[in-house]
Amino acid sequence: MIMALASTDWLMAAGWRQGLFIHCIGDDAPMPLPFNVQDPPDCYQARDVAYIRAAAALCIITLLTDVVATLFTGLGLRSKDHRTKYKYYRVAVYIMVLSLISILIALVIYPVCFAAELNEGNRTVWEFGWAYGVGWGAAIFLFGGVVLLLCDKESEEIYYKERKIVHDSDSRA
Question: Transmembrane residues, as ranges (predicted)?
Fold first, then answer.
């Protein structure tokens, strides 16, 4: 998520790269520039558009909640008591689901809202860059983390619910 947040390669066109916080204009950028921008070639703060700000905020929420969920998962792994472990895992799952929902909303609103302003883009070819793909990768890994935590929680329950009682047999000679 840090790479996706820091990159300017969410959306790309000829001479134009746009990230969540910065957009860059290349030296060879054909004129007119997209979205009526009149700046010389360099990198600038991202355009003040609601969907870019919303996607950035949701990605930051994803990063922070993922860190917290990872902390709770670590505490659960460290715990020896199965009840405490279950509580940590349950909290981690809820937080990871919140993180997953946040990144999915960000990854959907970004292209949908961009498509609404596509006519102002002044470019015929637009591509989503590798940073947008990293966001989808993070969503896939978050989903996998939720599934694995749910599976591990159930295996712990099975382990502690099954007990084997061994009786000493009186077959001593």
Answer: 50-77, 89-110, 130-151
Least confident of 10-14, 53-57, 64-68, 150-154: 150-154
Determine the distance from the C-alpha atom of residue 38 to the mean position of all C-alpha atoms in its chain, rounded to a whole number.
33
Domain encompassing residue 15:
2-161
Q: What is the CA radius of gyration of the chain?
A: 24
Q: How do residues 128-146 score in pLDDT, each as one tens digit?
A: 999 999 999 999 999 999 9
Tokens, residue 29: 């950028």
CATH number at residue 34: 1.20.140.150
Per-residue pLDDT reduced to its tens digit, 10-27: 999 888 899 999 999 998
What is the SS3 assignment for 119? helix
**Whole-Å CA distances, 75 to 6, 88, 115, 137:** 29, 7, 43, 25
Alpha helix (H) residue ranges in the chain: 2-6, 50-78, 82-116, 130-161
pTM summary value: 0.81
In three-state secondary structure terms, 66 is: helix
